[in-house]
């Protein structure tokens, strides 16, 4: 500690001299001004002060003092004297008492109330508190009455170099591009010192590099770090660890220092070209590989990273530039070779390519270092594969007339095996595309023939699929679509577009157009339809009507005269012959119905029937039909009423010869036998009385006398016949005395001891084990085989 104090005193000898020169004269020889007075005994000063006081009317202040200073971090065996207060009112008789108040009064600073000496009782730290504001006052010791107004003064803590520089923001990280020139800015560091930057050199810092030379340098005063060596290569060393020191006292001996670290990383630039790992690559590929399928990868390594390491690949030479392509894998930066066109082992068995890899992003500063690209040779061998048959055309178009004869050849498809072995080909039709089996194909030569007649008007196009299969390997299959167009022939006669019915007015004029008719033809000639209209030969000189061909391929019907009458003839039938212009021409005859109608004066049809003449009262045919329908309905009602009355007069008891219960119905169905309990429920055939435990005999007259049934009540008119029959049926079913008696016999078994013997062969094995079946062979081949089976069964049983 004494050594430290000595060092501190040596470093601060100049401030101490200034302190004593400043503090002590301020205590004893303070200059005289309006706020201060001279020491006691200076009458001239007092007189001048009194004159000024009278003029200015200010109270007299007798303090002799100035600003005070105290050295920080000073510690010794005795409290340090900061300064002394004195007033000229003090005659030295010890009647004056000095009082101190304010920051730290009584704790940090203590005043001698007799002498006015102020001492610092504790060690002070300027960085904690730089100055203290205190108030001093002189009072009468006996009466404690203030002799002077209180005065305020400041005690400043004088700095010493007791704080080392600190890098608050450290440690630092910085980057600088590789291959940078000397003096390239890297980063700037900053240190702080808590000492007073105004007083002395305690806070004057100087920077230097402790570690990191000779790669980097630092400006001593600005702390700017720069590169010190040129062409630092990231690929050789990427990261540098630099130690920076900041020292106060201007870097002189005895100054305090602090350090920080700066991690400097060289960022990448594109200063390295791509390089293939090998100069020659070999790949093999099957000839049936799919288009776009990758067949191999090449790799050009680049020492750079990120964007600077990205390369693009291209095929620059070779005999397969149009067959293969190369693309770049964005993740791995590999060059992927893919098939661009189909391969054929039989045509070409190998390819040689020259591949180039070039950087995408090139730094022009390093172009002088050489081209940023590299090349390699790629050899690709095509291997043979068992390929499916190849058709001579990807699609086929056949044309056939709809009247083509059956089994006529429509066309031919051809295919071959592209392999060296050249397997034979068989052709077939995919019947899913020819469900009606209208076509056949020769399996050997691929000729397509007609199997069923065609009709263009039904279907103009037929699309089928031909399948070619190798005979040596049925898994090798090819398909080709075949479109068959059916050509038109003139096989349909024209006919009226619709059934026409013309109306002719009685007051019509000669030459008036009665009706315009048109024709249609299902055929489709190349030059369009052209129809010819004519009357039948026997109707050419028709006295009533004539025809006229129109330019739009229609026909107009004209009246030859006037004066048509419905009473004379109501309907006329006009046969018309329609012919087309095909080869050979087709024709048909259509009949036009022409009705004579009554019309108004302006030619509007009003009535086309004769009832207007037959019924002078004015009733129409519709009214007559309605009246007739009503009459028929009344007749039907009368007939039904008479029939019902007749049925009500008939007796309700059925005669014996008409009793339906005596009818016997025979069914030729064989039942399931005695074990068939699911065919029907026998309980339904029994008497319902059996449910209660009483089962009367149905084959004899019962002994029990039942109460006679009440007589039948008269049936009122309008009774429900169906309900009446159901009631009588229920009474008859539950009355055992009603004739005839039902007899039901139940047989639970076939019976035994029959003289005829059993017809079943189920028990023959137990009774006739030595039976001989040889006689069955005399009945024919079928029974001979049956006898052999039974004989074998007997021999097995004996064994």
TrEMBL record:
<dbReference type="GO" id="GO:0000902">
    <property type="term" value="P:cell morphogenesis"/>
</dbReference>
<dbReference type="GO" id="GO:0007043">
    <property type="term" value="P:cell-cell junction assembly"/>
</dbReference>
<keyword id="KW-1003">Cell membrane</keyword>
<dbReference type="GO" id="GO:0005912">
    <property type="term" value="C:adherens junction"/>
</dbReference>
<protein>
    <submittedName>
        <fullName>CADH8 protein</fullName>
    </submittedName>
</protein>
<dbReference type="GO" id="GO:0045296">
    <property type="term" value="F:cadherin binding"/>
</dbReference>
<dbReference type="GO" id="GO:0043083">
    <property type="term" value="C:synaptic cleft"/>
</dbReference>
<feature type="compositionally biased region" description="Low complexity">
    <location>
        <begin position="753"/>
        <end position="770"/>
    </location>
</feature>
<keyword id="KW-0165">Cleavage on pair of basic residues</keyword>
<feature type="domain" description="Cadherin">
    <location>
        <begin position="392"/>
        <end position="496"/>
    </location>
</feature>
<dbReference type="GO" id="GO:0016342">
    <property type="term" value="C:catenin complex"/>
</dbReference>
<dbReference type="InterPro" id="IPR015919">
    <property type="entry name" value="Cadherin-like_sf"/>
</dbReference>
<comment type="function">
    <text>Cadherins are calcium-dependent cell adhesion proteins.</text>
</comment>
<dbReference type="Pfam" id="PF00028">
    <property type="entry name" value="Cadherin"/>
</dbReference>
<keyword id="KW-0677">Repeat</keyword>
<keyword id="KW-0479">Metal-binding</keyword>
<feature type="domain" description="Cadherin">
    <location>
        <begin position="496"/>
        <end position="618"/>
    </location>
</feature>
<keyword id="KW-0106">Calcium</keyword>
<dbReference type="GO" id="GO:0007156">
    <property type="term" value="P:homophilic cell adhesion via plasma membrane adhesion molecules"/>
</dbReference>
<keyword id="KW-0130">Cell adhesion</keyword>
<dbReference type="InterPro" id="IPR039808">
    <property type="entry name" value="Cadherin"/>
</dbReference>
<dbReference type="Pfam" id="PF01049">
    <property type="entry name" value="CADH_Y-type_LIR"/>
</dbReference>
<keyword id="KW-0325">Glycoprotein</keyword>
<keyword id="KW-1133">Transmembrane helix</keyword>
<feature type="transmembrane region" description="Helical">
    <location>
        <begin position="613"/>
        <end position="642"/>
    </location>
</feature>
<feature type="domain" description="Cadherin">
    <location>
        <begin position="277"/>
        <end position="391"/>
    </location>
</feature>
<keyword id="KW-0472">Membrane</keyword>
<dbReference type="GO" id="GO:0016477">
    <property type="term" value="P:cell migration"/>
</dbReference>
<dbReference type="InterPro" id="IPR000233">
    <property type="entry name" value="Cadherin_Y-type_LIR"/>
</dbReference>
<keyword id="KW-0812">Transmembrane</keyword>
<feature type="domain" description="Cadherin">
    <location>
        <begin position="168"/>
        <end position="276"/>
    </location>
</feature>
<keyword id="KW-0732">Signal</keyword>
<feature type="domain" description="Cadherin">
    <location>
        <begin position="87"/>
        <end position="167"/>
    </location>
</feature>
<feature type="region of interest" description="Disordered">
    <location>
        <begin position="753"/>
        <end position="774"/>
    </location>
</feature>
<dbReference type="GO" id="GO:0005509">
    <property type="term" value="F:calcium ion binding"/>
</dbReference>
<dbReference type="GO" id="GO:0016339">
    <property type="term" value="P:calcium-dependent cell-cell adhesion via plasma membrane cell adhesion molecules"/>
</dbReference>
<dbReference type="InterPro" id="IPR027397">
    <property type="entry name" value="Catenin-bd_sf"/>
</dbReference>
<dbReference type="GO" id="GO:0043679">
    <property type="term" value="C:axon terminus"/>
</dbReference>
<dbReference type="GO" id="GO:0044331">
    <property type="term" value="P:cell-cell adhesion mediated by cadherin"/>
</dbReference>
<dbReference type="InterPro" id="IPR002126">
    <property type="entry name" value="Cadherin-like_dom"/>
</dbReference>
<dbReference type="GO" id="GO:0008013">
    <property type="term" value="F:beta-catenin binding"/>
</dbReference>
<dbReference type="GO" id="GO:0034332">
    <property type="term" value="P:adherens junction organization"/>
</dbReference>
